[in-house]
Each structure stands twice: as C-alpha cells, then as structure tokens.
Amino acid sequence: MSKDQELSRLEKEWKTYFDRFTAPEPTREMTLDLIQKIKNIEQEQSPVDLRLELETTQNSLSTKSKIVNMFLSQLNFYGTTSWLLTGLLMIAITFTISENSADAMTGFSSWIKWITLLVIGVIGYSFRPKNEGNEIIESLSYYPVIQQIFTRFMIVMGSQLVLTLPLSLFVVGKEGTILYLVSSFIPIFFFGVIGFVTIFWLGQKIGLSITLFIWFSQVLLKNKLLFQTPGDDYFLTVNMIILGISILLLSSVVLKRRFSVIWK
C-alpha cells in the first residue's frame, strides 16, 4: 500500500470520530445582554475610591489625632535629615562664637546674625519650588494646601526656637536673662515670617531676595533695629513693634486664602 493510500485511509478513519459543529450566529438581544453582563462585572471589580476611603478614615479621627497626623506628614515631607543638619550647624555656630568672642554682648550680636541667616536658609529650603511629585502629594492630601504649608512653617520655626533659646544662654553665659531670650526670639521670628510670607506671595526667588536684602541692610548699617540687645535704648519698644509687624504679615496668608475663595 502506497503512502497516499495510507493517508487517505487514516483521514477517512479519523473523520468518523469528529462531529461537525457550527456556532450559531448571535442575535442582537444576545449581544446586548453580553455587553450588559460585561459592564456589571466591571462595576463589581472597579477599584476602591482611595480618596473617599481616606476622608472617611480621617473624619473618624479625633481632633487631636488629626493635628498629630498633619504635623507628622509635614515633618516627613522633606525628611528628617535636613532638620538634623540644621541643628548640628546651629550648635557648631554657637560653640565657635562662644569660644572666640571677647565678651557676652559682642558674642551675642555675632551669634544672632548668623542664626537668623541660617533661619532664612531653612525657610528657603523648606518652601523651595515644588516638583511634580510633591505637588501631587499636596493636592491629594486630606488637608488643604494652606494648612500644610502653614504647618510646615510652624515646624520650621518651632525647631529653630527650641534650639535657639537655650543656645543663646550658652553664648551669654552668666549674663543671660529673659531680655536676652527676647533678643533671640524676636529677630528669628521676624526673619522666619518675612521669608515665609514673601515666598508665599511672590515666589522663592523674589521672596528670598527681599529677605536677604533686609538681613544685609541690618548687618551693614549702623542702626540695627532688628538686632537689638538689652543695653540698647528703647529695647522693649522696638522689639514689640517688630513682633506686631511680624504678626500682621503672617495674617496676610489668611487673607490670600480668603481672596482666592472669593475670586473662584
């Protein structure tokens, strides 16, 4: 038997094992029913609304927990390394000046100038231009952006003041009094507010330029209104005026939020 005949025989033999099957043509109703079933499956398997879930979780928290969570989120926004480096730099400045100053008054004057310059740098770093990733994180957060940046400002200023006040007493030594604490607090708070407000309204470059201009003008000019020491004339009066100006400038951040809501 030839190969062709063998193949023909096998083909006929195997054909008996298979049944002819023709798929029926689906009707219009069957097609619509299939589409509806697919839609139902997609709805059942749709992703969870993470935003709604986050808001539900946040609303269930107490006010204290919300405040703590907001502070922790902003503390970790840029990481803790920068805050640690700032603290080490402040300590290094304090020890260097205290060991090389002729007297407490001279040492304190030099120290407060460098510390305020450091505060300006920290403010500029904390509120540097946002990249796309940071902007997405801020916009998706449960907390409004204005609350986030104001909380970040409070963290920056709080960490600066917590370190600065005891370090100022280390510089002045036995001559340290409450008035020296005032001399430390007011300039740091003022330059922190100036940096924050100008950056908030005008952007980082213009804001930092204005803040540094004010700092250099006080360092280079003879009449140093912002670097008062307890022995200067009208010490308390000048510092109270500076504190009042700082508070007024800080309140302008709230005004911008109100204006933005009205304009919308």
Describe this structure in words.
It is a single chain. By secondary structure, the chain is mainly alpha-helical. Helices cover 77% and strands 0% of the residues. It contains 11 helices and no strands. The longest helix is centred in the last third of the chain and has 29 residues, at 235-263. Mean pLDDT is 77; it is low at 259-264.
Give the gist of this structure.
It is built from 11 helices and no strands. With 264 residues, it is mainly α.
Layout of helices and strands, plus pairs?
Elements: H1 3-15, H2 28-44, H3 50-59, H4 63-75, H5 81-100, H6 104-126, H7 132-140, H8 145-172, H9 178-202, H10 204-220, H11 235-263
Helix pairs in contact: 4-8, 5-6, 5-8, 6-8, 6-9, 6-10, 8-9, 9-10, 9-11
Counted beta strands: 0
Average pLDDT level: 77
The portion of residues forming beta strands comes to under 5%
Order of helices and strands: HHHHHHHHHHH
Q: In DSSP terms, counting alpha (H) and pi (I) runs of 4 or more, how many helices?
A: 11
Helix content: over 70%
End-to-end distance: 93 Å
List keywords for this structure.
11 helices, 0% strand, elongated, disordered C terminus
